[in-house]
Design brief:
The protein has a domain of 270 residues: Beta-galactosidase, Chain A, domain 5 (Distorted Sandwich), CATH 2.70.98.10. Helices cover 25% and strands 23% of the residues. The strands form twelve sheets. The protein has a nine-stranded antiparallel sheet.
């Protein structure tokens, strides 16, 4: 990529780029159901862009453990919803989108009629609890709208949201025994002791407030709510499913199960009773807050002062249309559905984490107020530093800067004085490896999107990268690698630290701190310390300097790598591909290695050991379903055969992304899989965030217009592009031949036109 290549000039008729009309409703192309089956782990419910509330159906209540052991079936329910399930247990207000681990599922609501059942029952016994059968034939999933018929009760359920409020609309049959159940027990990745405490206060016959504190992935997570009903309930009650407490004070003098307004316990379910006529609509508004019930009430009254469900839905969908309109493409229906669903998924996380007045619960479990920025949470940084945050630097730069400000207050509140690793809801859960906040921060600084104290941010990056107690970092600093005795993921840790160190160096260079630049450029070369030239792969190294003897380059189990094998991870040097190519024997040998990655047959046993990837997410031994390989197809750009990047990218786009419920070949991981699709469809990709360069690929659409926040437009055209015409013969940037295999961030943000001329032959 750094060596010039003059693309062959091929003349073709000018493309008549038919832009989408300005008033086109792009929401019609969003299909939230994509990725709800198998590995996608997304949810089909309602949310606005980056919304604090993600209101969605949960289709089962699988426990995290059975008989004291991990229950592997729970993994399917990371997002709460499984497309193959036949029943719905209710609609909860918080979800993760596409993660490989989980939490949340707060405050589940379920409408029913007939006999009052206070237990969800089990899927294998229809009618055993308050769950209901449903059919996909009555299911409608759109951006910020979900509808389904609860068949056991003949109730039509509809959901929509604002940023902090979930709005429900239930159309009931005629019944003297209509119920709304509020399940404070239910959660995702649930187990008996997950609830620390719950509290419910029935304020009056239309307003209920409360909170729940849980542990688990988020060790100390407290969420408050305010629940408002559109009409009074006629009676209410509760059930406490906690183990019998040894001492409960003198509360036993009250009947706490019926019409008692002050309920507390670990395992509480509430019910609210109504009488309904055919077609009666009962509406609910559930507002959330991390701070207090007063904060939840403020959010409720500010964002949803009325009861017009259709108006709230329209506001949410108009918001989505504005966000989706930042990238307008010229493509067929299927391509538009894939593209705009990917953009929808990319704009779900991270999530706003503050009340309308800026108040939020900090990492120190103290309430704070965001001054001059919006506070965010849900930072799946091992995944999203690769492409999602670079996408934000183009389409959402102000929001991305606020996300970095949120990382910096996390750092200030952290007793470890570290930037977030994987954080959510005022908790650091320490998931995955590396310290990839520094990549996100460096990428913004290098690209000129740093309306924050950039030097303070760099200091936070340095402090994080020198925290010796974190995942073998002390040994990495001393030895230049993480020894295998210290960590089971010693090689991938070393490789990720080396890349992060390079990104710190780039930020330091941009800020003129050349001493830091020099030190971290030296550290960024540490990837060479786990390279075993005798076998041509990255390999675990022991503390004495020798390489681990028992080693399998294909296995993902106990070989020194996280979510990958040596074959894939040996290519994880995104910041120095030229040096990697030299280590692997030069361009010809490197191309042979890349070719074999895509064409070899990986035996089932090598991915049967992992729950987070299936055959669907693998092409040969290229594992697209896990993020460490996302840059790999672009590495041909550093060789004499860049056409193979173009060929591989188009193959991956076709095989790994479809507009069907099983349309994702791996977890979406808070938008990373989708961000890869967006970049690659447009024709370029950020191989090494922290650089201002984007490697060129093969655009899979006829054209696009990126409407930038600075008021400018960046236009992409692909003349002659088609299913077979995947090869780039010529590229013009603003009318001039582009003699390199990358474009820069500055060139995009300045506006202009990038024109690809495509061919069926390389």
């Amino acid at each position: 990529m750094r060596k010039s290549l003059l693309f062959l000039l091929v003349f073709s008729p000018a493309l008549s780029f038919a832009q989408n009309t300005p008033d086109e409703n792009l929401v019609q192309y969003v299909r939230p159901i994509i990725g709800t089956q198998r590995m996608g782990h997304v949810y089909p419910g309602a949310t606005v862009p980056f919304g604090m509330v993600q209101l969605s159906p949960d289709t089962d209540t699988i426990p995290y453990e059975q008989n004291g052991k991990y229950n592997p079936d729970v993994y399917k329910y990371c997002a709460g919803y499984q497309y193959d399930d036949k029943t719905i247990v209710g609609f909860s207000h918080t979800h993760f989108s596409g993660t490989g681990h989980s939490d949340l599922g707060d405050f589940l609501i379920m409408p029913t009629v007939g006999e009052l059942r206070m237990n969800p029952g089990v899927a294998s016994q229809p009618g055993s609890g308050f769950r209901s059968a449903f059919s996909h034939s009555t299911e409608v999933a759109e951006a910020d709208y979900y509808k389904v018929k609860l068949e056991d009760y003949n109730i039509l359920a509809e959901l929509t949201t604002t940023s902090r409020v979930g709005m429900h609309q239930y159309t009931f049959p005629s019944s003297d025994n209509a119920h709304i159940i509020l399940d404070m027990v239910s959660g995702i990745y649930n187990y008996e002791d997950k609830n620390i405490w719950t509290f419910v206060h029935v304020v009056n016959d239309t307003l209920v407030t409360g909170w729940r504190q849980t542990n688990g992935w988020g060790r100390t997570r407290t969420e408050y709510f305010a629940l408002s009903f559109s009409r009074p309930f006629i009676e209410y009650g509760s059930r406490n499913y906690s183990k019998k407490q040894v001492y409960r004070g003198f509360w036993g003098k009250f009947d706490q199960n019926h019409n008692f307004p002050d309920i507390a316990g670990k395992q509480i379910r509430m019910y609210f009773n109504f009488r309904t006529h055919e077609g009666d609509k009962i509406k609910l508004k559930m507002a959330l807050s991390s701070v207090s019930t007063d904060g939840a009430l403020l959010n409720l009254r500010t964002e949803t002062p009325g009861w017009d469900f259709e108006q709230v839905k329209k506001q949410g969908q108009d918001w989505w249309n504005r966000e989706l309109s930042k990238a307008r493409i010229d493509a067929g229906r299927d391509e538009k559905e894939n593209f705009y669903t990917s953009l929808y998924h990319a704009f779900i996380n991270p999530t706003v984490y503050m009340d309308v007045d800026g108040s939020y619960r900090g990492l120190d479990q103290v309430n704070h107020k965001a001054e001059g920025f919006s506070n965010y949470t849900t930072f799946s940084l091992w995944d999203t530093h690769r492409a999602l945050h670079p996408l934000f630097n183009i389409l959402e730069p102000t929001r991305n800067a606020d996300m970095i400000r949120s990382m910096l207050v996390h750092y200030d509140q952290s007793v470890e004085h570290m930037l977030p690793i994987w954080s959510h809801y005022a908790n650091e859960n320490w998931c995955m490896s590396g310290y990839h906040s520094v990549s996100v921060i460096a990428d913004a600084i290098v690209k000129g999107n740093a309306p924050f104290d950039a030097n303070k941010a760099l200091d936070a990056c340095i402090a994080t990268s020198t925290h010796r107690d974190f995942m073998g970092l002390g040994a990495y600093i001393d030895k230049g690698y993480v020894p295998a005795e210290i960590s089971g993921t010693s090689v991938s840790n070393t490789l990720e630290y080396a890349y992060d160190d390079w990104s710190i160096a780039q930020a330091a260079k941009k800020l003129g701190r050349m001493d830091v630049y020099a030190a971290y450029m030296r550290r960024s070369q540490n990837y060479k310390n786990v390279w075993d030239p005798s076998i041509g792969y990255m390999r675990p190294r022991l503390a004495d300097g020798s390489f681990k003897k028992e080693f399998d380059v294909l296995s993902t189990n106990d070989q020194g790598f996280i979510e990958g094998n040596a074959w894939n991870y040996s290519l994880y040097v995104p910041h120095d591909p030229a040096a990697l190519i030299g280590m692997m024997g030069g361009k010809q040998q490197f191309v042979r290695h890349l070719d074999s990655l895509f064409t070899m047959e990986l035996p089932d046993k090598f991915f049967a050991e992992t729950e987070d990837i299936t055959r669907d997410g693998i092409i040969g031994n290229y594992v697209h379903g896990n993020e460490p390989s996302h840059h790999v197809a672009y590495l041909y750009d550093w060789t004499d055969q860049p056409w193979k990047t173009q060929e591989r990218i188009r193959m991956i786009l076709t095989k790994q992304y479809r507009n069907t419920p099983d349309g994702l070949g791996g977890n979406d991981d808070c938008g990373q899989m989708s961000a890869w699709y967006i970049f690659s469809t447009l024709g370029f990709y950020p191989v090494a965030p922290g650089s201002d360069q984007y490697a060129l690929g093969s655009p899979a659409i006829n054209g696009a217009v990126l409407h930038l926040e600075n008021g400018k437009e960046f236009v992409i055209e692909a003349h002659g592009q088609g299913e077979k015409a995947v090869y780039v013969k010529k590229v013009l940037l603003n009318g001039q031949p582009l003699t390199r295999r990358y474009i820069t961030h500055e060139e995009i943000m300045a506006g202009g036109k990038l024109v690809f001329y495509m061919s069926e032959k390389h």
